[in-house]
Amino acid sequence: MSDAPKIWHNGRLAPWHQATVHVSAHALHYGSSVFEGERVYATPDGPRFFRLADHTRRLFASARVYGINVGYTRDRINAACREVVAANGMDSAYVRPLVFRGAGGLGVLPADNPVDVAILALPWGSYHGDARERGADVCVSSWNRAAPNTFPAWAKAGGNYLNSQLIAMEARRGGYAEGIALGTDGMLSEGAGENIFLVLDGELVTPPTSAGVLVGITRDSVIKLAAQRGIPVVERALPRESLYYADEAFMCGTAAEITPIRSVDGMPVGDGTVGPVTRDLQDAFFGLFDGRTEDRWGWLTGLDVPASTDAASDPGPPEGIPAAVPDREKQQAANHGRTARQAPDSMETSA
Ligand code: PMP
Questions:
Q1: Which of 33, 208, 230, 290 could tie 235 with a disulfide, CB 3.0–4.6 Å?
Q2: What is the pLDDT of residues 228-264, one digit of tens each?
């Protein structure tokens, strides 16, 4: 792979340094972006995306919440994700599709801001370093997750990650690998960028999707892998102290994969080593990528899957959102023309 990977930007592959935006981009000012984080694993059969179609589905759902018209079909975005990994000659990658409101007026109401779409593919190993093996030391954050009916937690939107940054930065200042946030009701929610599972009284438990969490695709994979191994998962509201009562705990997410937690607030989880349920689920999860775990769910897809494969499972964009912006070309011209040279007609300001 070359040092400067190519980026898929508004329908074409651009050299890294050319995939730029103008400082008037709405998303820079107001956090109006939605994005995904996906992984491609080097498997014995070659590079394989993990649950690409599910990530793309969530990307479109996040966009829908904010009324952002992606301007491409899901099928096209799936193909573009593959394209960028293939074009960079990568065997494994972290892939970041990003949809954001671009350069235009500065009104909070995004009246005429075009929508930009970029897909980056970067090399990325283990998110929490060797904690994947030995377990991470985490703390409970003094910051809560966003209250219900404020920032929609199910949407993976750029603005939500201001909260995540506060949680992660506070944790790092205290010498912890990650912070775990409670909801405004004081119940366990999730990490700055991960969902949480505990082994508590012999049960594998996780906060419900109503606990201010992003409904993680890895979370869902853990639930399915556990069920297949005869380990039922109970989704229920968990108080803070459940972290201190747990025999085992782990975080999961695309970047974090399955990372055991060995201590919370300086107190060891269980005996402070990685427990058997966590190990078993880690084996099952990583086994998907080296062939030890059968992919019964069709989660792994290659880089050159014919478009029709996605189309078959792609019912198209949600109601009210056109499949493709008919004036996408015009929109891009407006965006690019403006990004570099031209101020919008009126600079309405608010906030
Ligand atoms: N919660 C948050 C806040 C996250 O950022 C992530 C990472 N996307 C997750 C949970 C886990 O989600 P997923 O397994 O889909 O990556």
A1: 208
A2: 999 999 999 999 999 999 999 999 999 999 999 999 9
Alpha helices in 182-291 (DSSP H): 217-228, 242-245, 276-290
- One-letter amino acid at 162 equals L
Backbone φ and ψ of 27, nearest 5°: -65, -30
Backbone φ, ψ for residue 321 (5° rounding): -115, 115
At 43-64, the pLDDT tens digits run 999 999 999 999 999 999 999 9
What are residue 40's phi and psi, to 5 degrees?
-115, 130
The Cα 161–Cα 44 span in angstroms is 35
Strands (E), the chain: 6-9, 12-15, 33-35, 38-43, 46-50, 93-101, 115-122, 136-144, 178-182, 188-191, 195-200, 203-206, 233-235, 248-253, 257-264, 267-268, 300-301
Ligand 1, pocket-test mutation among 95, 189, 254, 257, most atoms within 8 A of CB: 254
156 is catalytic: yes
C-alpha distances (whole Å) from 242 to each of 33, 134, 139, 200, 238 are 34, 21, 13, 7, 6
**Catalytic residue of the set 6, 156, 224, 330:** 156
Q: Is the backbone of residue 257 left (phi > 0), alpha (psi -120 to 50) or beta?
A: left
Q: What's the CA-to-centroid distance between 154 and ligand 1, angstroms?
A: 10
Alpha-helix residue ranges (DSSP H) falling in the chain:
26-30, 52-65, 74-87, 131-134, 161-173, 217-228, 242-245, 276-290, 307-313, 328-340
| For ligand 1, mutation pick of 128, 214, 219, 258 (most atoms within 8 Å of CB) | 214
Give yes or no for a contact between 136 and 171, defined as CB atoms under 8 angstroms apart: no
CA–centroid distance, residue 105 to ligand 1 (Å): 31
What is the whole-number distance in angstroms between the Cα of residue 315 and the centre of ligand 1? 24
* Per-residue confidence band for 128, with pLDDT thresholds at 50, 70 and 90: confident
Contact 115, 69 (CB under 8 A): yes
